[in-house]
Amino acid sequence: MVIEASFAVQLHACADRLFHLLECFNGARVLVVGDLTLDEFLTGQVERISREAPVLILRHETTKQVPGGGANAVYNLAKLGAQVKAVGLFGKDDQGRSLRSIFDSSGIDTQGVLIDPDRPTVTKTRISGHARQSVTQQIVRLDRKSDDLPDPHLQLQLAEYIRSQLSTVDAVVCSDYGDGVLTPTIISAALSHSRTIVDAQTQLQRYQGATLFTPNLPEAEQAVGYAITNPQTVTQAGFDLLALTQAEQILITRGEEGMSLFDSQGREQHIPAFNRTDVFDVTGAGDTVVAALTLSLTAGASFWEAAVLGNLAASIVVRQFGTTTTTPSEMKAALQALLEE
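Below the sequence we write its predicted structure tokens.
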């Protein structure tokens, strides 16, 4: 896409700086506290309608398992070069073992991931089908999860682990998908770090005083209690969220409208979307934004520079189907392509 002329000037002016920041991603130390989820993708070809019920019968072709939810934030950080410590809960089940295996093979530290025998590993299984020579489409999703909170003893163990690790990491990310790990006890421990980035679907006020929040548009609307439909309401929402959360910065991600960054000094900055045409799947893009901007901040970026690189990373992963990641090399190539437009 052709980005706005005024923004293009800004981008060219700081290009060398952005390339330098990407070079510094490798080796950053980040602790992620989150609702660790396994995303499963089962696909098959439609054979016929069942005689038992008016449903499709699929002949199974592939099963793919990838990190989802807070685990996707962990995985994105690792793929971008960070040294990552994951904190959360797995169930005593095959899904938890699969997710731990994925983490181990990517060099992710799982000492802070405990087993909760009373709750399953959060798992979202998407079943998709296709006829011969047709596009594969999702048919149904099956979720495994518990509405019960973790045992208080497990909560205390996680909080103690977080506090023991704060001096060893450059940033803490809270990836809250509402699945029960981020209780007040654990949130309090996470907020003890001087650089805490929060990606929470609901109840942002529970994280008062965090460094940066990254709500998407629906999450921002839910938090402020009104629709965000024009530039005026975007501005109002940004500063209302700052008041609600007492954060240093609020970054509202707005899909094809780009991103809007607000700070406690009253400044407002807008970043256009870098990719509006080749968007195939936005699943997990928010986790990618959080990962890239967190590593940018640990490398010394300004909040604006970090948001630009987060936006750049998201513009890459939305071109692919399913939950996916990117790398600094891919980001450098995408940045160079932007500069050459």
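The first helix runs from residue 5 to 13.
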